[in-house]
Amino acid sequence: MNPRPQRQFSLALVIGIASFFLLPLRPSFAQQNTKELHLTLSNPLNIERVNEMVVIDPRQLSAKFSPKEGTRLLVLRGDQEIPSQWIVAEGSEGLGFVLPKIGAKEAIEICVVLAPMGHLSEYRKRTQAELSHKFGGEFKDREYLGGHFENVQSLRVPAEHTDHSWFIRYEGPGWESDLVGYRFYLDWRNGIDVFGKKVHEMVLQNVGQDGFDSYHEPAEWGMDVLKVGKTLGLGSIATWENNTARRVDVTDSLYAEIVDNGPVYSSVLTKYYGWNLPSGKTDIRSEISIHAGTRLSKIALTASNPLPNFATGLIKDPKGGLIKGDTGHAYSYIATYGPQSLNNDKLGIAVIYPVAQLKEVTEDGLSHVLVFNSEDKSLSYYILAAWELEPNGIQDETEFKSYLDEQVLKLSSPLEIKIQN
User: Fold this and answer.
1) DSSP state for residue 169 in the 8-state scheme
2) Rounded to an integer, what distance in angstroms lies between the CA atom of residue 109 and that of residue 121?
3) At a CB cut-off of 8 Å and minimum separation 6, what does 122 contact?
């Protein structure tokens, strides 16, 4: 279990959309285990749900298990093991697993047990987060010459680094599920981009090893499918100033860290120090996460000072028409769909946002913009991309809108979880 009890823990539910297999476990193992935590998961919606992320609060687990036993916990449904991992991202800490399927209005029983000493569960890796930069070379005129890429756990970005320095592989951190990949530029641009995937396997470890240009061309694994430029790309962090969306640009320093890199959940922490805004310098903490079987990626932001005009949005592309979701639920969305990928394939992108915090939907010359009232200094929203060349990918705008409407329903009506005595 989490060795840092001073943190505040919560039960996190995130929504996904594909399926995977349960791992067989001998029934005798579950029957022989004397330390068990039982819970009931209930679906309040009249639709089937697949690949739902569930995180069990460490305080609930502490009633049955000691902190040192946290890494040995297994999640069972009947005699089947569900792949799980311990999540350490702040605000989402706990034992996480992705529920393969739960029927309309269905309630199911889940059991958490202590694995015997020596038991080893090997799960297929369905998420990944990574950060890679060069070693063995040197900066000259803000360009990194020579060297080779190595993955790192964290990076305080050197002052010499800027866009196209050739220092950070594919220019920033990357994260992916088995359906889609994302990255953002870890420099003054701070735009979020999309890697469309033709395969379910993890691919980021091979992207950009030979330079920036290769992943803009079609490959067996997929390609970079979104042109970001000076726009908000897909859900980039911004403020709304003088009728223009301004991405996080002028800062004192940047820090990025891979917090989780597991089989079912991965997350990236970024700290923007001293963002120079008209109201004064502000620090921004960004926690980006993704789980197995989903296109959705959650972005949770915290500012050191109130930001009444926190903003985000989407690139404005003439080949992608704007779609607005219904605002009758806790969440809604803006989206675009059309032949707007770099390869002229059909691509849908969307931001799913909390309706209660929205001030306005607007635009500037480059982007469709959402402006939020975030005077409590925090904002969370979801981004997603759907490329027609994915395996069994979404093929038209009608299907894309139906998919978005379903995601809004699920986010607005999360699974109900009851810990049994």
Assistant:
1) G
2) 21
3) none
Tokens at residue 399, please? 């299907």
H helix or E strand, kind and range, residue 397: helix 397-412
- Summarize the confidence of residues 233-246 as an average pLDDT: 97
CA terminus-to-terminus distance, the chain: 20
Query: Which backbone phi and psi does 17 adopt, to 5 degrees?
Result: -145, 15
| Cα distance between residue 214 and residue 88, in whole Å | 34
Find, among 51, 103, 40, 22, the residue nearest to 407 by Cα.
51
Q: Cα–Cα distances in Å, from 61 out to 96, 185, 259, 344?
A: 12, 38, 22, 49
Token pair 């089989």: residue: 263
- Rounded distance between C-alpha atoms, residue 107 and residue 40, angstroms: 7
pTM: 0.92
With a cut of 70, say whether residue 9 has pLDDT above it: no
The structure tokens listed for 269 are 């922490």
Residue 270 pairs in a beta bridge with 256, 286
Structure tokens at 96: 């996480």
Q: Give residues with Cβ within 8 angstroms of 199, minimum separation 6.
A: 220, 221, 222, 391
The identity of residue 284, as a single letter, is I
- Local structure of 305: helix, strand or coil: coil
The runs of H, that is alpha helices, within 295-385 are: none
What's 410's DSSP letter?
Answer: H
- Determine the 3-state secondary structure of 246 from DSSP: strand
**E strand or H helix at 402, and its extent?**
helix 397-412
Reported in sequence order, the residue ranges of 264-420 that DSSP labels E, i.e. its strands, are: 265-277, 280-291, 297-303, 307-315, 321-324, 331-338, 347-354, 358-363, 367-374, 378-387, 416-419
171: tokens are 């220019």
Among 89, 91, 109, residue whose Cα is nearest residue 99: 109
Write the burial class of residue 183 (CB in 10 Å: 0-12 exposed, 13-18 middle, 19+ buried).
Answer: buried
Q: Which fold has domain 13-122+415-419?
A: Immunoglobulin-like (2.60.40)
The structural domains of the chain, with segments of one domain joined by +, span 13-122+415-419, 127-390
Q: Over the stretch 295-328, which tens digit does the pLDDT of each residue have?
A: 999 999 999 999 889 999 999 999 999 999 999 9
Note whether 8 and 281 are within 8 A (CB): no
For the chain, the residue count is: 421
> What single-letter amino acid sits at 280?
G
- Cα–Cα distance, 263 to 292 (Å, whole number): 8
In this prediction, residue 15 has a pLDDT band, given cuts at 50, 70 and 90, of very low
d(CA 251, CA 244): 19
Contact 211, 224 (CB under 8 A): no
